[in-house]
């Protein structure tokens, strides 16, 4: 299991895939969407290295380590699995977030799938599918 990133207060952000520095850039530039007004830390080798991460709203702190396409896709899948848990009524949305935080033994404020590692996403998907299956709500 990966240890939590210790560079929370550093302003220097490196890409975990290629080791290059990451620059703060407007998300509109990366997503080609002028309606975006947020910022991203983007690997200097982008787009050759397809890694970036959002900043925490209102700050210049990255949400976590830079994520490549595979990890971003996995987080979308994990979010979909998690949303099914409360959308099908197994528990409320608030209870589902608490359940997830308890499962990973993390504080509720850290229970954000957008910050999860590949390993944690896979665990969450498995856990959600298991819960839905036991509740007779498996798709
Ligand atoms: Zn990179």
TrEMBL record:
Superkingdom: Bacteria
What InterPro entries does UniProt report for this protein, alphabetically?
A: DUF3268
Specify the protein name.
Uncharacterized protein
Q: Which organism is it from?
A: Oscillibacter valericigenes
Question: Which lineage is the organism of this entry classified under, starting from the top rank?
Answer: Bacteria, Bacillati, Bacillota, Clostridia, Eubacteriales
């Amino acid at each position: 299991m990966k240890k939590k990133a210790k560079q929370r207060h550093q302003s220097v952000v490196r890409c975990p895939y290629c080791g290059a520095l990451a620059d703060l850039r407007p998300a509109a530039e990366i997503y080609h969407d002028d309606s975006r007004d947020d910022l991203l830390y983007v690997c200097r080798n982008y787009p050759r290295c397809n890694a970036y991460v959002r900043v925490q709203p209102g700050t210049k702190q990255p949400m976590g380590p830079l994520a490549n396409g595979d990890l971003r896709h996995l987080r979308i899948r994990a979010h979909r699995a998690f949303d099914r848990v409360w959308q099908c009524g197994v528990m409320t949305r608030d209870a589902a977030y608490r359940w997830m935080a308890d499962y990973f033994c993390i504080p509720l404020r850290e229970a954000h799938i957008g910050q999860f590692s590949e390993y944690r996403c896979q665990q969450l998907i498995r856990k959600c599918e298991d819960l839905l299956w036991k509740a007779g709500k498996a798709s």
